[in-house]
Structure formats: structure tokens, C-alpha cells
């Protein structure tokens, strides 16, 4: 092994050890280069309008596929996973309106950005001059593609990254840096013949294995869509008022999910006490108490009220309890 290879291996080892110390559950590294396989998939997905009103996904097409257009002199993409799965005692009861688990605690953008900044500072202190940028779901980076490329998991039929022995309840983030490191390789797909996520999706957003029509996803309707919710999805949103976890909840790999050790992702104690009446009568003050630092602020008080009314007033829903019963039948099949 040449001296340069030894140096890259040593730097890589340091980065992965420090990432673990900062609380990341996994770290993988891949060469910063053009994503050849993703280009036609992204182009086709956009051409079919599967982005809905998420027009920002149409922008910076070239940057989404080539990290060297985002960071001058980029050599490596460091992908990191941060577990957000809540402990059972912190999860909302099944018979009430639901907020996606990722939004229970403090907004992940802030939590992860702080960790990434520390990791980059530590790299600069250990390696020397390192240029780079941190990315947390707020820039044109195909995070799942890079995580897959660096061996952190495979992209499942529900289009989520799935990690053996860990599942998929985690955030993905990146550091794109201008130093060469030792690179990891992808792993195989372990979805097999399973179709639980396709079968369970109430809006048929998973149009075929590995393809999700974003404009049909419950998360899209409850977060991204700024208009009134369409009449045609009445009775299909279950009891989800912000996001949706159905395709992850039914995934067999998530039986390996373990509670996150990250205290900042713990929910406000009042959240699991909320019942349908409480949600119906939620005030601006209660909203601020529950979600002051949460990603739920993205939809805002008015947006959450819109979602609550739509679900509670939907005649076909039969209320949250009956919806959960239907979901349970799907999950166990």
C-alpha cells in the first residue's frame, strides 16, 4: 500500500470514529462524481410531474447529479445517518391524529447541521486545510443516492434507504469535501419479493416498486401542498395530519429499529396526551408549545388546522380509531 493510500485510510478511519462519537449511527464515503444511473431516473420522474407543486425539485438539475458543481474541487461525499426512532413510551397512541415520528422533537436541520459543523472542524484540525459544505435536506443533493453509493443501505421499494439491522427511521446528511478518502461500495438490495409498502399505501403513491409519485404521497398533501386538500383524497389520508410513516411502519426491516439516543429528538410530553378533541380545538399557543422547535412549523398553525379539519370532517374516515383498525389489518397481512 502506498503512502497516499495509508494517509487516506487513516483520515477515513478518523472521520468515521468522530462521526460515531458525535452520535451518527453510520458513516459511508464515496467518490464525488457524476451520478450516471440517477440522471435518467430523475429526468423521467420530473417529466411525469411526480414532483407536484414541489417546483424546487426542477431547479439545479445538473447540481443534483454532480457534487462538483456544488463544492469547488469536491473529491469525496461523506454520507451520515442519524437515528430518530422514538422509544415506545414516547410514541403517539394509535387511536389519535398522527404526526410523523421524524417531527416529534427538535427540527433535524438544526440538530444535524451542528453535528456536521463539528465534524468538519475536527477534520480541519486533524487533516489540515479541508474545504467543504454541509448538507441537510436543504440543497440539491440526492442524499439517498449518495448513501446507497457509500454502502449505508439500499433504496427500497418505498424509495427509502434501508439499512440491514437498522431499518429506515433515520435522517441522511452529507459533507462534500475537497480531499480524497478511502471509498466504500454499495451493498445488495434485500427487499426480495416483499410488497408490503406498496400494498399498504392508501393513496397508491408507490406506483411501482422503487417509484414514488411525490404528488400522491400523504406527506406531500399534509406538508408540501399549499392549496386546499383535493376532494378526491378524502378518506385516504388516514389519521395523518403531518407527514406519514405507513410505508416504513409496515416494512419488515424496521423491526430492527431501536430508540434514538439523541435527546433533542424527544417529543414534548404533551404530544402523546393529545386526543381528537384536543387537536380539533388546538390553539396557536398550544401549537407553539408542542412544535416551537419542530419541523411541524414548516406547515404552520394554519396548515395544520387545515389538515386536522380535512381528516376529522371527512365522512368516509369513520374517525381515527376505525382508520387505525384498517391500517392494522393491512400491516398484519
From TrEMBL:
Q: What is its EC number?
A: 1.17.99.6
The residues listed in the UniProt record as binding [4Fe-4S] cluster 2, with positions renumbered to this chain, are 201, 217, 244, 247
Cite the entry's keywords alphabetically. 4Fe-4S, Cobalamin, Cobalt, Cytoplasm, Iron, Iron-sulfur, Metal-binding, Oxidoreductase, Queuosine biosynthesis, tRNA processing
Q: What does the UniProt cofactor note say?
A: Binds 2 [4Fe-4S] clusters per monomer.
Q: How does it assemble?
A: Monomer.
Q: What does this protein do?
A: Catalyzes the conversion of epoxyqueuosine (oQ) to queuosine (Q), which is a hypermodified base found in the wobble positions of tRNA(Asp), tRNA(Asn), tRNA(His) and tRNA(Tyr).
What name is this protein filed under?
Answer: Epoxyqueuosine reductase
Originating organism: Hymenobacter edaphi
Amino acid at each position: 500500500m502506498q503512502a497516499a493510500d495509508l494517509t487516506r485510510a487513516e483520515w477515513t478511519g478518523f472521520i468515521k470514529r468522530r462521526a460515531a462519537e458525535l452520535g451518527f449511527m453510520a458513516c459511508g464515503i464515496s467518490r464525488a462524481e457524476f451520478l450516471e444511473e440517477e440522471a435518467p431516473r430523475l429526468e423521467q420522474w420530473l417529466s411525469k410531474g411526480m414532483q407536484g407543486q414541489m417546483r424546487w425539485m426542477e431547479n439545479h438539475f445538473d447540481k443534483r447529479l454532480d457534487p462538483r458543481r456544488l463544492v469547488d474541487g469536491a473529491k469525496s461525499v461523506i454520507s451520515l445517518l442519524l437515528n430518530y426512532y422514538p422509544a415506545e413510551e414516547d410514541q403517539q397512541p394509535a387511536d389519535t391524529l398522527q404526526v410523523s415520528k421524524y417531527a416529534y422533537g427538535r427540527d433535524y436541520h438544526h440538530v444535524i447541521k451542528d453535528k456536521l459543523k463539528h465534524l468538519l472542524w475536527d477534520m480541519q484540525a486533524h487533516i489540515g486545510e479541508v474545504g467543504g459544505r454541509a448538507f441537510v435536506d436543504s440543497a440539491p443533493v440526492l442524499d439517498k443516492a449518495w448513501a446507497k453509493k457509500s454502502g449505508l443501505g439500499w433504496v427500497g421499494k418505498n424509495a427509502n434507504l434501508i439499512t440491514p439491522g437498522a431499518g429506515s427511521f433515520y435522517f441522511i446528511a452529507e459533507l462534500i469535501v475537497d480531499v480524497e478518502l478511502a471509498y466504500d461500495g454499495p451493498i445488495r438490495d434485500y427487499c426480495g419479493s416483499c410488497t408490503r409498502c406498496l400494498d399498504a399505501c392508501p393513496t397508491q403513491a408507490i406506483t411501482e416498486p422503487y417509484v414514488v409519485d411525490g404528488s400522491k404521497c400523504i406527506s406531500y398533501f399534509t406538508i408540501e401542498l399549499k392549496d386546499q386538500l383535493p376532494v378526491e383524497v378524502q378518506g385516504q389520508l388516514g389519521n395523518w395530519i403531518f407527514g406519514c410513516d405507513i410505508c416504513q411502519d409496515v416494512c419488515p426491516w424496521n423491526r430492527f429499529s431501536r430508540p434514538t439516543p439523541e435527546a433533542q429528538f424527544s417529543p414534548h410530553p404533551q404530544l402523546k396526551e393529545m386526543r381528537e378533541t384536543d387537536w380539533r380545538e388546538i390553539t396557536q399557543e398550544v401549537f407553539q408549545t408542542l412544535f416551537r422547535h419542530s419541523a411541524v412549523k414548516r406547515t404552520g398553525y394554519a396548515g395544520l388546522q387545515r389538515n386536522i379539519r380535512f381528516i376529522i370532517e371527512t365522512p368516509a374516515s369513520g374517525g381515527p380509531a376505525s382508520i387505525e383498525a384498517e391500517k392494522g389489518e393491512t400491516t398484519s397481512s
